[in-house]
Automatic annotation (TrEMBL):
Pfam families in the record: TsaD
The protein's Enzyme Commission number: 2.3.1.234
Name of the molecule in the record: N(6)-L-threonylcarbamoyladenine synthase
Catalytic reactions on record: L-threonylcarbamoyladenylate + adenosine(37) in tRNA = N(6)-L-threonylcarbamoyladenosine(37) in tRNA + AMP + H(+)
Organism superkingdom: Eukaryota
Gene3D superfamilies in UniProt: 3.30.420.40
Source organism of this protein record: Caenorhabditis brenneri (Nematode worm)
Gene Ontology molecular-function annotations: metal ion binding; tRNA N(6)-L-threonylcarbamoyladenine synthase activity
GO biological process, one term: tRNA processing
GO cellular component: mitochondrion
Chain ranges of the Gcp-like domain: 45-121
Keywords: Acyltransferase, Metal-binding, Transferase, tRNA processing
The protein's enzyme class: transferase
């Protein structure tokens, strides 16, 4: 969920700022039908990771319905974020960054992840 470029950038920022702890990042993935959230450290340690998908609805509808995916992302992102924070033993204020999928993917699904990331970061 977090690219090498972002990791290198955060590591560089960490050394410039002089932090003596590992940065923590909330990652949100909504490129298609799965809703995924994770909290990771800059040294790639996964503190918590959660995923939701609803295959039964997809089978009922004969495949992936982008509008249904977006609705599920809206519903489950906050739930998964809360679960990850609790499982990782981290408060929102202890997070240093939010990373979110921006491409490739279904535009309507990506929009939900991006909107959630912006709301959380505020």
């Amino acid at each position: 969920m977090i690219s090498n470029h972002i990791l290198k950038t955060t590591i560089a920022a960490n050394s410039v700022v002089g932090r003596n702890y590992s940065l923590k990042v909330l990652g949100i993935e909504t490129s298609c039908d799965d809703t995924a959230v994770a909290i990771v450290t800059e040294d790639r340690k996964v503190l918590s990771s959660e995923r939701f998908t609803e295959r039964a609805i997809q089978r009922q509808q004969g495949g992936i319905n982008p509008s249904v995916c977006a609705q599920q992302h809206r519903q489950y992102i906050p739930i998964l974020i809360e679960k990850c924070l609790k499982d990782a033993g981290v408060s929102p204020k202890e997070l240093d960054a939010v990373a979110v999928t921006v491409t490739p993917g279904l535009v309507i699904a990506l929009k939900e992840g991006i909107s959630a990331a912006i709301r959380f970061a505020r």
